[in-house]
Amino acid sequence: MPATFPPRLHVLLARDAGYAVILRRGPSKTVCSIGWDRRNDTFTVGQWMRGRIYERRSDLSPDGKHLIYFAMNGRWTSETKGSWTAISKAPYLKAITLLGKGDCWHGGGLFRTKTRYWLNDGYGHKPLLVSARITRDEIWQPPACYGGECLHVYYNRLQRDGWTLRNDLPHDRDATEVFDKPAGSGWILRKFCHAQCGAPQGKGVYHDRHSLVRADSTDMIDLPDWEWADLDGKRLVWASGGRLHTSSLKGCGLVNGLLLRDFNNMAFAPIAAPY
Question: Is residue 257 in some structural domain?
Fold first, then answer.
């Protein structure tokens, strides 16, 4: 029998609000968007989609109200030509702005403000539906260039949200870049970003590993099972094995760990957006 793996989780944190959207992928051609109210750790299933959302080309508006994402379902004769960039009302996927693409070059984008976004265009987007409330910034460009696809959006998003690119550090095996973020109590959260063909089973071409490093020594806690991790205020939050966790950090390391939600036992269900 083929091996089975837990769903992959990638989280988009609203930088000015206590809200987030979780993109749950699994099986590989099925994705679900889930809203996370970080103020009380409650969760709301948004919508399911048969296809692929490129989470590293996605972003959440600063106020947590809108989601931009790049998706592909391979229906090349459809109106979107099989792939598209969309803006929706979080945590749902139904587009209020829809830009057909027709291939998987470029796509997705970043929110500049709560109502303005940068489109990772390259070429080929065709407007099919445009919201008057959310407008495109056609002048701004990300400060650094990392090609046209996932890493260009993702690495610029990381640095915008407080991660520091560490060009002075050796990379971890097949990692392309290393990012650090202060985690409190003398610790640094380190993210090793991988981009590799022939990735380990259960991981995509793009995947991350993490560790906690003492800022004043060589002490390190390796966390190979954490596929996503970040700081939510003063607490550490991470995804592992299809589950979302949180913990405090003290000088001795992780304390008071808590499972926030297990997303393993979920099944596709058609859900209509309430707009």
Answer: yes
Confidence of residue 1 (pLDDT cuts 50, 70, 90): very low
- Structural domain boundaries, residue 126: 8-262
CA–centroid distance for 17 within its chain:
16
Greatest Cα pair distance, the chain, in angstroms, is 57
The answer to whether the CB of 89 falls within 8 A of the CB of 65 is yes
Contact (Cβ atoms closer than 8 angstroms) between residue 201 and residue 192: no
Number of domains the chain contains: 1
Candidates 113, 117, 59, 120; CA nearest to 90 is: 59
**Within a domain: 33:** yes
Rounded Cα distance between 68 and 95, Å, is 9
Tell me if 184 is assigned to some domain.
Answer: yes
Sign of torsion over alpha carbons 19, 151, 201, 31: positive
User: What is the pTM (predicted TM-score) of this model?
Assistant: 0.94
Question: pLDDT above 70 covers what percent of the chain?
Answer: 94
